[in-house]
Structure formats: C-alpha cells, structure tokens
Fold this sequence. Notes:
Helix content: over 70%
Radius of gyration: 46 Å
Number of strands: 2
Protein name: K-box domain-containing protein
Mean pLDDT: 81
Number of domains: 2
Largest sheet: 2 strands, antiparallel
Low-confidence stretches: 154-161
Order of helices and strands: HHHHEE
GO molecular function, one term: DNA-binding transcription factor activity
Coiled coil: 36-63, 89-123
Pfam family, one: K-box
Number of helices: 4
Strand order of the largest sheet: 1-2
Organism: Quercus lobata
Amino acid sequence: MAGSRRITKSTIERYKKACNDGLGTSSIAQTNAQYYQRESTKLRQLIQNMQNANRHLLGEELNSLNIKEMKQLEGRIEQGLTRIRSKKHEMLVAEIEYSQKRVMELENESVCLQAKIEEIERLQQVNLNMSGSELNAIQALSCNFFTPIVVEGSTSYSQPK
C-alpha cells in the first residue's frame, strides 16, 4: 500500500506541476498560436483541394488525375447533368401548362367577344330590315319601357331613366 500511495502522490504532484506550467500566459498564447497555425494550414489545404476539384469539374487540369479519379469525376458530372436536365424539364412542363391555360383563357375570351360581335351585327341587321311602320309599332308597344334614340341615321333603344 505504501508504494501505491507514493505513486499516487507523485502523479498528483506531476499533475499540479503541469497545471501550473500550463497556466502561464506565454504558454497559453504559444499554444493558441500553434493551434491557429495548424487550423490555418488545414483551411489553406481545404481551399486548395476545393479549387482543384472545381477546375476538374470545369474540365481543366485533368492531367493530374488517374483513370479511377477520371471515372469518379465523370460520374459526378453525369449526376449533375441529370439533376440539371430534370429541373429544366420541370420548368418547361410548368411553362407549357401555364401557356396552355393562358391559351384556353384567351380562346374563351375570343368566343365571348365573337358572340358579342355577332349579337351587335344581328341587331344592326334587324334594325336595317325593319320598315318604318314596324319601327313605329315597336315604339308604340314599348313606349313605357324603351325610348328611341336616333344616332346618325340608325335607331337604337334604351330604357328610360
């Protein structure tokens, strides 16, 4: 047991000494500087790797790649193209659907306008075909509801106000 106490005591003393040595401001600053230098080096390497990967995706600097890396690059590019084509297809389908909907709306509007034109032409034809006596008879029957309005040689009717 005495040996065990001595080992424990020496371990505690070494721990205290290490803690005291580590608490010095110059030691902390030096440790921090070393840590940030390592991190900076890692980040520079990461940036370099990303730039190289980007160049490879653009088809540049491919001489440094072996066959396996070229196949992997080709697979990544094909996957990217597949996603791009899929998104483009979705956008085109949406645009076609919108255009078809718009065509239907315009066709419906055209039908309505054509019906209005036909109604106006029919009314004008009826007015031209009526003789003066027919107009007088219609005016007499509808004097409570309609009053004739003469505009540049044609007769039209409106409700009294």
